[in-house]
Amino acid sequence: MNTLTTQELERRGLAAVEEGLQAGPVRIVEDDRPRFVVLTVERYRDLLEAEDEAYVARVQASLADVEAGQIRRGTAEDAIRELGLED
Questions:
Q1: 81 within a domain of the structure (yes/no)
Q2: Does residue 85 belong to any structural domain of this protein?
Q3: Number of domain units in the chain
Q4: Are 7 and 35 within one domain?
Q5: Residue 3 per-residue DSSP state
Q6: Is 53 in the same domain as 35?
Q7: Theoretical Cys-Cys bridge with 26: which of 33, 38, 43, 68, CB 3.0 to 4.6 Å?
Q8: What is the number of alpha carbons within 13 Å of residue 67 lying toward its C-beta?
Q9: Is residue 75 part of a domain?
């Protein structure tokens, strides 16, 4: 990831960000601490799509567990008792 300081950003402006984006995301650093990450719109959309796909996969896996009978309903107290964590 390319790094750009806030001072360089103030000095060079958006051209510095555009230049950095040619090689990937740009991390903006202020006082030696990461503050922001700048992405292209395409990369941002890819990340959102991947997040949505991961969510759907988790829900599908959970539904498969329910259909396979691998899910039991109970309370937190039931789980504590079952795990032998009672005092």
A1: no
A2: no
A3: 2
A4: yes
A5: E
A6: no
A7: 38
A8: 6
A9: no
CB-based burial label for 26 (10 Å; 0-12, 13-18, 19+): buried
32 shares a domain with 44:
no
Q: Retrieve residue 80's tokens.
A: 């504590």
Map tokens 């990340």 to a residue.
47
Contacts of 74 (CB under 8 A, 6+ apart): 82
For 11-57, give the DSSP string.
HHTHHHHHHHHTTS-EEEEETTEEEEEE--HHHHHHHHHHHHHHHHH
Q: Express each pLDDT in 32-44 by its tens digit.
A: 999 999 999 999 9
Chain centre distance of CA 28: 18
Report yes or no on 78 lying in a domain: no
* Structural domain boundaries enclosing 64: 40-70
| Mean pLDDT score, 6-22 | 95
Whole-number percent of the chain with pLDDT over 90: 91
